Structures are given as structure tokens and as C-alpha cells.
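Suppose a colleague, Dr. K., hands you the sequence of a protein chain of 202 amino acids and asks what its three-dimensional shape might be. Before reaching for any lab equipment, you can write down a predicted structure in C-alpha cell form. Begin with the sequence itself:
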Amino acid sequence: RVEVLKSKLRALEETAKQSEAATARRQEEAAAERRRRDAGDECYVDGSVDLGKGRSGVGVWYSFGHELNFAGRTTRRSMDNNVVETIAAFAALSRHDVDEKVTIHSDSRWVCRAMERVCEGRLREVSGVNAVTVATAYVLRARRGRTVIQKVRAHVGGPHADNARADQLALVGSKASDEDASSAFIPFVGSSSSEGESGDGF
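The predicted structure, expressed as C-alpha cells, is then:
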């Protein structure tokens, strides 16, 4: 009888341990989900242009493992910094849920000012209106969630900063092959006629 009781006690202890472990896993998963949701409404966008090799790409960075992280190549003729930076913002907007809020961080003053004017219904005041600005205006108009565009300083915080991650993705995108399907939705446009403003930030 004593051995039976000991056996039952060990079983109960094992069950309790398994229950505690399961509870800890659920709590960890819930915390990870909260972190994912908190990070899910903010992203960093950047563009990469290599005039020497005639290629450019865009990057969108949310957080590690986020399903909306993106790297894609633009067409060979999209070699204007402001245009490529705008394509990066367009890529983020077009892939984010229209009902969810989003804050887009860009190191391009030109893009931030252009998107502000678009949001205020002043598209005609954007210099060099082209296919990308019109497409960006369309996706902004279709959004129901709150949309914020914020200027961040370029090349601050080292290679592990969020903006640097977007820059790294843009570089990856620029090196993708011409046949890469991820570039299919990126429109071709010419120069932005940018009033002397650079897409490289401060």
C-alpha cells in the first residue's frame, strides 16, 4: 500500500510539473504574441540604388521573423533615390492590412513630405508626380487604419538599428535576379524631379 501511495504521489508530482510547464509555455507564447502585435504596427522602409551596376531595391523591416518583412528589386530604370524610397513606402502600405494602424519610418525627407501632402489631399503639390506617387495616394486613400509617417535619421545606431535592417533588406532586394517574382508589383517610373532634396536623409 505504501508503494502504491508513493507511485500515485510521483504521478501527481509529474502531472503538476507538466501543467506548470504548459502554463509557462502559454505565458511565453502570449508574451511573444503581444510583442509581435506591438511591433506589428511599426515598420522601417528604405531604398538602395547602385548607379554603377544599374540596379535598385527596396526593403521593409518590422521585426525579426515578422511575416511582412520584405526585400524586392525595382526595375533597372528606377534609379532615382526619391523614387526608390517612395516605392519602399508603397511596398509597405500595399502589404499592410488596410484596417490596422501602421507607422512608417523613413530616412527620406522627400518621401515624408510627399506622403504628408498626399494624405492632406495635395497630390498636385508633390514635385514630379509619377506612377508611384499616384499608386501611394491610392493605397493611402483605401486605408481605414491610422497611418503615420515619421522621419528618422539615417545611419544612426549601427548595423543593428531598425532603419539599418531596412537598408540591408533593400540591398538584398537590389541584388535579386531580374526574374525574381517579388519585383512584379513594383511599377516603373522615371525621375522624381526632387527640388534638390536627397532620399538619403540628413
